[in-house]
Protein backbone atom coordinates (compact mmCIF):
# COMPACT_ATOMS: atom_id res chain seq x y z
CA UNK A 1 0.00 0.00 0.00
CA UNK A 2 1.12 3.53 -0.76
CA UNK A 3 1.06 5.43 2.52
CA UNK A 4 -0.35 8.94 2.26
CA UNK A 5 0.17 10.52 5.68
CA UNK A 6 -2.48 13.22 5.56
CA UNK A 7 -5.16 14.72 3.35
CA UNK A 8 -4.13 17.48 0.98
CA UNK A 9 -4.87 20.88 2.52
CA UNK A 10 -6.65 21.90 -0.68
CA UNK A 11 -8.88 18.81 -0.84
CA UNK A 12 -12.00 20.96 -1.14
CA UNK A 13 -10.51 22.76 -4.15
CA UNK A 14 -12.22 20.06 -6.21
CA UNK A 15 -15.50 21.95 -5.74
CA UNK A 16 -14.13 25.33 -6.82
CA UNK A 17 -13.25 26.88 -10.14
CA UNK A 18 -12.48 24.53 -12.99
CA UNK A 19 -12.80 21.50 -10.68
CA UNK A 20 -16.35 22.32 -9.62
CA UNK A 21 -18.94 19.58 -10.24
CA UNK A 22 -20.65 20.08 -13.58
CA UNK A 23 -23.88 18.70 -12.09
CA UNK A 24 -24.70 19.37 -8.44
CA UNK A 25 -27.86 17.36 -7.81
CA UNK A 26 -27.61 13.62 -8.43
CA UNK A 27 -30.17 10.82 -8.34
CA UNK A 28 -28.69 7.70 -6.75
CA UNK A 29 -30.31 4.27 -6.87
CA UNK A 30 -30.00 1.71 -4.09
CA UNK A 31 -31.60 -1.51 -2.92
CA UNK A 32 -32.99 -2.38 0.52
CA UNK A 33 -29.71 -3.92 1.66
CA UNK A 34 -27.35 -3.09 4.49
CA UNK A 35 -24.43 -2.77 2.06
CA UNK A 36 -26.09 0.36 0.64
CA UNK A 37 -24.93 2.04 3.86
CA UNK A 38 -22.21 4.27 2.45
CA UNK A 39 -24.56 5.80 -0.13
CA UNK A 40 -27.26 6.36 2.48
CA UNK A 41 -24.81 7.89 4.95
CA UNK A 42 -23.21 10.07 2.27
CA UNK A 43 -26.60 11.41 1.18
CA UNK A 44 -28.16 11.99 4.60
CA UNK A 45 -25.36 12.78 7.05
CA UNK A 46 -23.65 15.76 5.44
CA UNK A 47 -20.86 14.00 3.57
CA UNK A 48 -21.85 15.23 0.10
CA UNK A 49 -22.24 18.97 0.67
CA UNK A 50 -18.53 19.73 1.19
CA UNK A 51 -17.94 18.39 -2.32
CA UNK A 52 -20.62 20.55 -3.90
CA UNK A 53 -23.22 17.79 -4.25
CA UNK A 54 -26.78 17.04 -3.25
CA UNK A 55 -27.53 13.30 -3.37
CA UNK A 56 -31.14 12.25 -3.88
CA UNK A 57 -31.75 8.64 -2.88
CA UNK A 58 -34.17 6.44 -4.83
CA UNK A 59 -34.84 2.98 -3.46
CA UNK A 60 -35.40 0.38 -6.17
CA UNK A 61 -37.46 -2.79 -5.84
CA UNK A 62 -35.42 -5.03 -8.15
CA UNK A 63 -31.99 -5.07 -9.72
CA UNK A 64 -33.53 -5.14 -13.20
CA UNK A 65 -35.44 -1.92 -12.47
CA UNK A 66 -32.27 -0.32 -11.12
CA UNK A 67 -30.39 -1.39 -14.25
CA UNK A 68 -33.03 0.02 -16.59
CA UNK A 69 -33.20 3.38 -14.80
CA UNK A 70 -29.42 3.65 -14.74
CA UNK A 71 -29.20 3.00 -18.47
CA UNK A 72 -32.07 5.39 -19.24
CA UNK A 73 -30.51 8.19 -17.22
CA UNK A 74 -33.25 8.39 -14.57
CA UNK A 75 -30.49 7.49 -12.12
CA UNK A 76 -27.12 9.18 -12.40
CA UNK A 77 -25.32 6.47 -10.45
CA UNK A 78 -26.28 3.55 -8.25
CA UNK A 79 -25.30 0.82 -5.87
CA UNK A 80 -24.54 -1.99 -8.30
CA UNK A 81 -23.80 -5.66 -8.48
CA UNK A 82 -20.40 -6.19 -10.08
CA UNK A 83 -21.81 -8.72 -12.51
CA UNK A 84 -24.74 -6.46 -13.38
CA UNK A 85 -22.43 -3.62 -14.42
CA UNK A 86 -20.26 -5.96 -16.48
CA UNK A 87 -23.29 -7.79 -17.87
CA UNK A 88 -24.72 -4.53 -19.23
CA UNK A 89 -21.35 -3.53 -20.63
CA UNK A 90 -21.04 -6.90 -22.40
CA UNK A 91 -24.66 -7.05 -23.52
CA UNK A 92 -25.78 -10.01 -21.42
CA UNK A 93 -28.38 -10.38 -18.69
CA UNK A 94 -31.34 -8.85 -20.49
CA UNK A 95 -30.07 -5.61 -21.99
CA UNK A 96 -28.30 -4.32 -25.07
CA UNK A 97 -24.63 -3.43 -24.49
CA UNK A 98 -24.04 -0.01 -22.97
CA UNK A 99 -20.61 1.26 -21.97
CA UNK A 100 -20.51 1.21 -18.17
CA UNK A 101 -18.21 2.41 -15.41
CA UNK A 102 -17.29 1.24 -11.92
CA UNK A 103 -16.31 4.32 -9.91
CA UNK A 104 -15.32 2.50 -6.73
CA UNK A 105 -16.03 -0.51 -4.56
CA UNK A 106 -18.74 0.02 -1.95
CA UNK A 107 -18.35 -3.10 0.16
CA UNK A 108 -16.73 -6.47 0.70
CA UNK A 109 -18.17 -9.65 2.24
CA UNK A 110 -21.53 -9.88 3.99
CA UNK A 111 -23.77 -12.04 1.77
CA UNK A 112 -25.16 -15.43 2.74
CA UNK A 113 -26.60 -18.70 1.43
CA UNK A 114 -29.64 -19.73 3.44
CA UNK A 115 -31.82 -22.86 3.48
CA UNK A 116 -35.40 -23.40 4.66
CA UNK A 117 -36.44 -24.60 8.10
CA UNK A 118 -38.03 -27.63 6.45
CA UNK A 119 -34.63 -28.71 5.12
CA UNK A 120 -33.18 -28.16 8.58
CA UNK A 121 -35.87 -30.40 10.06
CA UNK A 122 -34.98 -33.03 7.46
CA UNK A 123 -31.35 -32.94 8.63
CA UNK A 124 -29.99 -31.02 5.64
CA UNK A 125 -27.70 -28.75 7.61
CA UNK A 126 -24.35 -29.04 5.85
CA UNK A 127 -22.92 -29.37 2.35
CA UNK A 128 -22.67 -33.18 2.44
CA UNK A 129 -26.30 -33.54 3.49
CA UNK A 130 -27.37 -31.09 0.81
CA UNK A 131 -25.46 -33.00 -1.87
CA UNK A 132 -27.09 -36.24 -0.72
CA UNK A 133 -30.52 -34.57 -0.75
CA UNK A 134 -29.96 -33.25 -4.26
CA UNK A 135 -28.88 -36.69 -5.48
CA UNK A 136 -31.80 -38.50 -3.83
CA UNK A 137 -34.62 -35.99 -4.25
CA UNK A 138 -37.30 -36.82 -6.80
CA UNK A 139 -37.96 -33.13 -7.42
CA UNK A 140 -35.16 -30.62 -7.86
CA UNK A 141 -34.63 -28.16 -5.05
CA UNK A 142 -35.29 -24.52 -5.92
CA UNK A 143 -32.83 -21.79 -4.99
CA UNK A 144 -33.29 -18.06 -5.50
CA UNK A 145 -30.69 -15.45 -6.36
CA UNK A 146 -31.17 -11.77 -7.09
CA UNK A 147 -30.09 -11.19 -10.73
CA UNK A 148 -28.90 -13.47 -13.56
CA UNK A 149 -25.41 -11.93 -13.84
CA UNK A 150 -25.24 -10.69 -10.26
CA UNK A 151 -22.91 -11.55 -7.43
CA UNK A 152 -25.50 -13.65 -5.59
CA UNK A 153 -26.00 -15.96 -8.55
CA UNK A 154 -22.24 -16.36 -8.82
CA UNK A 155 -21.66 -16.97 -5.08
CA UNK A 156 -24.45 -19.54 -5.09
CA UNK A 157 -23.11 -21.26 -8.20
CA UNK A 158 -19.54 -21.22 -6.90
CA UNK A 159 -20.47 -22.70 -3.52
CA UNK A 160 -22.69 -25.42 -4.96
CA UNK A 161 -20.11 -26.40 -7.58
CA UNK A 162 -17.34 -26.51 -4.98
CA UNK A 163 -19.40 -29.19 -3.21
CA UNK A 164 -20.07 -31.21 -6.33
CA UNK A 165 -23.55 -29.85 -7.09
CA UNK A 166 -24.00 -28.50 -10.62
CA UNK A 167 -26.00 -25.28 -10.20
CA UNK A 168 -27.54 -25.39 -13.67
CA UNK A 169 -28.32 -29.11 -13.79
CA UNK A 170 -28.79 -30.50 -10.29
CA UNK A 171 -30.99 -27.72 -8.85
CA UNK A 172 -33.41 -25.12 -10.13
CA UNK A 173 -32.63 -21.43 -9.74
CA UNK A 174 -34.82 -18.37 -10.15
CA UNK A 175 -34.60 -14.62 -9.62
CA UNK A 176 -36.24 -12.98 -6.59
CA UNK A 177 -35.64 -9.38 -5.39
CA UNK A 178 -33.66 -9.35 -2.11
CA UNK A 179 -36.40 -8.00 0.13
CA UNK A 180 -38.80 -10.71 -1.06
CA UNK A 181 -36.49 -13.65 -0.27
CA UNK A 182 -37.72 -14.32 3.26
CA UNK A 183 -41.36 -14.28 2.21
CA UNK A 184 -40.70 -16.79 -0.56
CA UNK A 185 -38.75 -19.00 1.85
CA UNK A 186 -41.48 -18.77 4.49
CA UNK A 187 -44.20 -19.73 2.00
CA UNK A 188 -42.26 -22.71 0.66
CA UNK A 189 -41.86 -21.31 -2.85
CA UNK A 190 -38.10 -21.75 -2.58
CA UNK A 191 -35.83 -24.10 -0.65
CA UNK A 192 -33.04 -21.60 -0.18
CA UNK A 193 -31.57 -18.33 -1.37
CA UNK A 194 -28.41 -16.28 -1.69
CA UNK A 195 -28.78 -12.58 -0.97
CA UNK A 196 -27.30 -9.68 0.92
CA UNK A 197 -28.20 -8.79 4.47
CA UNK A 198 -30.31 -8.31 6.43
CA UNK A 199 -32.40 -10.94 4.71
CA UNK A 200 -30.41 -14.00 5.78
CA UNK A 201 -30.42 -12.73 9.37
CA UNK A 202 -34.16 -12.02 9.13
CA UNK A 203 -34.84 -15.61 8.00
CA UNK A 204 -32.91 -16.86 11.03
CA UNK A 205 -34.63 -14.41 13.39
CA UNK A 206 -38.13 -15.47 12.40
CA UNK A 207 -37.29 -19.17 12.20
CA UNK A 208 -38.04 -19.63 8.50
CA UNK A 209 -34.48 -20.56 7.62
CA UNK A 210 -30.84 -20.87 8.61
CA UNK A 211 -27.52 -19.72 7.19
CA UNK A 212 -25.57 -22.51 5.54
CA UNK A 213 -22.63 -20.42 4.30
CA UNK A 214 -21.43 -16.83 4.11
CA UNK A 215 -19.95 -15.34 0.97
CA UNK A 216 -16.77 -14.53 2.88
CA UNK A 217 -16.34 -18.25 3.54
CA UNK A 218 -16.21 -18.64 -0.27
CA UNK A 219 -13.72 -15.80 -0.76
CA UNK A 220 -12.47 -13.82 2.26
CA UNK A 221 -12.71 -10.08 1.58
CA UNK A 222 -14.31 -10.60 -1.81
CA UNK A 223 -15.52 -7.65 -3.87
CA UNK A 224 -19.25 -7.10 -3.55
CA UNK A 225 -21.28 -3.97 -4.37
CA UNK A 226 -19.87 -1.12 -6.44
CA UNK A 227 -20.77 2.45 -7.27
CA UNK A 228 -21.72 2.20 -10.92
CA UNK A 229 -22.83 4.51 -13.71
CA UNK A 230 -22.70 4.73 -17.47
CA UNK A 231 -19.45 5.65 -19.16
CA UNK A 232 -21.34 8.56 -20.73
CA UNK A 233 -21.96 10.02 -17.27
CA UNK A 234 -18.25 9.96 -16.45
CA UNK A 235 -17.34 11.53 -19.77
CA UNK A 236 -19.97 14.27 -19.50
CA UNK A 237 -19.47 15.00 -15.79
CA UNK A 238 -15.92 14.00 -14.79
CA UNK A 239 -15.67 16.49 -11.91
CA UNK A 240 -19.04 15.38 -10.61
CA UNK A 241 -18.00 11.73 -10.75
CA UNK A 242 -14.81 12.51 -8.82
CA UNK A 243 -16.71 14.54 -6.21
CA UNK A 244 -19.20 11.70 -5.83
CA UNK A 245 -16.39 9.24 -5.18
CA UNK A 246 -14.96 11.59 -2.55
CA UNK A 247 -18.28 11.96 -0.76
CA UNK A 248 -18.93 8.21 -0.67
CA UNK A 249 -15.33 7.49 0.35
CA UNK A 250 -15.65 9.89 3.27
CA UNK A 251 -18.89 8.20 4.35
CA UNK A 252 -17.33 4.75 3.99
CA UNK A 253 -14.41 5.77 6.18
CA UNK A 254 -16.80 7.10 8.80
CA UNK A 255 -18.81 3.85 8.98
CA UNK A 256 -15.73 1.68 9.48
CA UNK A 257 -14.14 4.08 11.96
CA UNK A 258 -15.78 2.59 15.07
CA UNK A 259 -18.43 0.21 16.34
CA UNK A 260 -20.30 3.25 17.60
CA UNK A 261 -20.50 4.60 14.05
CA UNK A 262 -21.63 1.20 12.82
CA UNK A 263 -24.39 1.04 15.42
CA UNK A 264 -25.69 4.48 14.51
CA UNK A 265 -25.54 3.55 10.83
CA UNK A 266 -27.48 0.34 11.46
CA UNK A 267 -30.16 2.37 13.21
CA UNK A 268 -30.34 4.72 10.23
CA UNK A 269 -30.66 1.80 7.81
CA UNK A 270 -33.60 0.31 9.71
CA UNK A 271 -35.84 3.23 8.69
CA UNK A 272 -38.71 2.35 6.36
CA UNK A 273 -37.41 4.51 3.52
CA UNK A 274 -34.05 2.72 3.46
CA UNK A 275 -33.83 -1.00 4.35
CA UNK A 276 -37.05 -1.18 6.33
CA UNK A 277 -36.12 -4.18 8.46
CA UNK A 278 -35.98 -4.63 12.24
CA UNK A 279 -32.83 -3.24 13.85
CA UNK A 280 -32.27 -6.60 15.56
CA UNK A 281 -31.99 -8.21 12.10
CA UNK A 282 -29.62 -5.52 10.80
CA UNK A 283 -27.26 -4.68 13.66
CA UNK A 284 -25.59 -7.98 14.65
CA UNK A 285 -24.22 -8.98 11.25
CA UNK A 286 -23.49 -5.32 10.50
CA UNK A 287 -21.17 -5.57 13.51
CA UNK A 288 -19.82 -8.97 12.41
CA UNK A 289 -21.79 -10.97 14.99
CA UNK A 290 -23.23 -14.08 13.37
CA UNK A 291 -25.78 -16.66 14.51
CA UNK A 292 -26.62 -19.25 11.85
CA UNK A 293 -29.87 -20.62 13.28
CA UNK A 294 -28.23 -23.99 14.01
CA UNK A 295 -26.89 -22.99 17.41
CA UNK A 296 -23.55 -21.64 16.20
CA UNK A 297 -22.45 -18.07 16.92
CA UNK A 298 -19.20 -16.33 16.01
CA UNK A 299 -17.51 -13.00 15.44
CA UNK A 300 -16.66 -13.11 11.75
CA UNK A 301 -13.10 -12.13 10.88
CA UNK A 302 -14.17 -11.14 7.35
CA UNK A 303 -17.53 -9.50 7.95
CA UNK A 304 -19.13 -6.76 5.88
CA UNK A 305 -16.85 -3.77 5.56
CA UNK A 306 -16.98 -0.51 3.66
CA UNK A 307 -13.50 1.00 3.83
CA UNK A 308 -10.70 -1.14 5.25
CA UNK A 309 -8.21 1.73 4.94
CA UNK A 310 -9.19 2.03 1.27
CA UNK A 311 -8.69 -1.63 0.39
CA UNK A 312 -12.43 -2.07 -0.10
CA UNK A 313 -12.85 0.84 -2.46
CA UNK A 314 -10.13 0.49 -5.09
CA UNK A 315 -11.71 -0.66 -8.39
CA UNK A 316 -9.09 -3.35 -8.96
CA UNK A 317 -8.79 -4.68 -12.49
CA UNK A 318 -8.54 -8.19 -11.07
CA UNK A 319 -11.97 -7.88 -9.41
CA UNK A 320 -13.66 -7.04 -12.69
CA UNK A 321 -11.73 -9.83 -14.41
CA UNK A 322 -12.89 -12.42 -11.86
CA UNK A 323 -16.56 -11.71 -12.40
CA UNK A 324 -16.09 -12.01 -16.15
CA UNK A 325 -14.45 -15.42 -15.67
CA UNK A 326 -17.52 -16.63 -13.80
CA UNK A 327 -19.90 -15.25 -16.42
CA UNK A 328 -17.83 -17.23 -18.92
CA UNK A 329 -17.70 -20.33 -16.72
CA UNK A 330 -21.49 -20.58 -16.53
CA UNK A 331 -22.17 -19.89 -20.19
CA UNK A 332 -23.49 -16.35 -19.82
CA UNK A 333 -20.57 -15.25 -21.96
CA UNK A 334 -20.44 -17.46 -25.03
CA UNK A 335 -16.84 -16.61 -25.82
CA UNK A 336 -13.86 -15.07 -24.11
CA UNK A 337 -13.82 -11.28 -24.24
CA UNK A 338 -10.60 -9.30 -24.21
CA UNK A 339 -10.70 -9.55 -20.43
CA UNK A 340 -8.10 -6.94 -19.55
CA UNK A 341 -9.26 -4.43 -22.14
CA UNK A 342 -12.80 -4.64 -20.80
CA UNK A 343 -11.66 -4.22 -17.19
CA UNK A 344 -9.49 -1.24 -18.12
CA UNK A 345 -12.48 0.38 -19.80
CA UNK A 346 -14.95 -0.23 -16.97
CA UNK A 347 -12.82 0.26 -13.84
CA UNK A 348 -12.30 3.99 -13.31
CA UNK A 349 -8.96 3.65 -11.57
CA UNK A 350 -7.48 7.04 -12.50
CA UNK A 351 -10.56 8.88 -11.28
CA UNK A 352 -10.55 6.86 -8.08
CA UNK A 353 -6.84 7.55 -7.46
CA UNK A 354 -7.46 11.30 -7.81
CA UNK A 355 -10.35 11.21 -5.34
CA UNK A 356 -8.63 8.96 -2.80
CA UNK A 357 -5.37 10.89 -2.94
CA UNK A 358 -7.19 14.15 -2.31
CA UNK A 359 -8.64 12.63 0.87
CA UNK A 360 -5.32 11.24 2.05
CA UNK A 361 -6.51 7.67 1.58
CA UNK A 362 -3.91 5.03 0.78
CA UNK A 363 -4.05 3.85 -2.82
CA UNK A 364 -2.86 0.32 -3.64
CA UNK A 365 0.13 0.30 -5.96
CA UNK A 366 -1.13 -2.64 -8.02
CA UNK A 367 -4.41 -2.94 -9.91
CA UNK A 368 -4.29 -6.69 -9.36
CA UNK A 369 -4.76 -8.52 -6.06
CA UNK A 370 -4.18 -12.15 -5.20
CA UNK A 371 -6.74 -14.37 -3.49
CA UNK A 372 -7.39 -18.01 -2.67
CA UNK A 373 -10.97 -19.22 -2.72
CA UNK A 374 -12.71 -21.98 -0.77
CA UNK A 375 -11.97 -24.72 -3.30
CA UNK A 376 -8.26 -23.91 -3.30
CA UNK A 377 -8.31 -22.04 -6.60
CA UNK A 378 -5.69 -19.30 -6.79
CA UNK A 379 -6.74 -16.04 -8.39
CA UNK A 380 -4.36 -13.32 -9.48
CA UNK A 381 -5.90 -12.17 -12.76
CA UNK A 382 -2.94 -13.27 -14.88
CA UNK A 383 -4.80 -15.82 -17.03
CA UNK A 384 -8.56 -15.20 -16.90
CA UNK A 385 -9.40 -17.40 -19.88
CA UNK A 386 -7.44 -20.32 -18.41
CA UNK A 387 -8.96 -19.72 -14.99
CA UNK A 388 -12.50 -19.88 -16.39
CA UNK A 389 -11.67 -23.23 -17.99
CA UNK A 390 -10.01 -24.66 -14.90
CA UNK A 391 -13.11 -25.79 -13.01
CA UNK A 392 -14.45 -29.34 -12.99
CA UNK A 393 -18.06 -28.13 -13.04
CA UNK A 394 -18.98 -25.50 -15.61
CA UNK A 395 -21.29 -24.72 -18.52
CA UNK A 396 -18.66 -23.94 -21.11
CA UNK A 397 -19.20 -25.13 -24.64
CA UNK A 398 -16.81 -27.78 -25.91
CA UNK A 399 -16.53 -25.93 -29.22
CA UNK A 400 -13.39 -23.95 -29.97
CA UNK A 401 -13.80 -20.26 -29.23
CA UNK A 402 -13.54 -19.35 -32.91
CA UNK A 403 -16.66 -21.41 -33.66
CA UNK A 404 -18.82 -19.86 -30.97
CA UNK A 405 -21.51 -17.42 -31.95
TrEMBL record:
- What CDD domains does UniProt report for this protein, alphabetically? PBP2_NrtA_CpmA_like
Give the Pfam families listed for this entry: NMT1_2 (PF13379)
This protein's UniProt keywords: Cell inner membrane, Cell membrane, Membrane, Signal, Transport
Protein name as it appears in the record:
Nitrate/nitrite transport system substrate-binding protein
The domain of life for this entry's organism is Bacteria
SUPFAM superfamilies to which the protein is assigned, alphabetical:
Periplasmic binding protein-like II (SSF53850)
Residue ranges annotated as transmembrane are none
Q: Spell out the InterPro entries in the cross-references.
A: NrtA/CpmA_ABC-bd_dom
Q: Where in the cell is it found?
A: Endomembrane system
Its source organism is Stutzerimonas balearica DSM 6083
Record flagged with keyword Transport:
yes
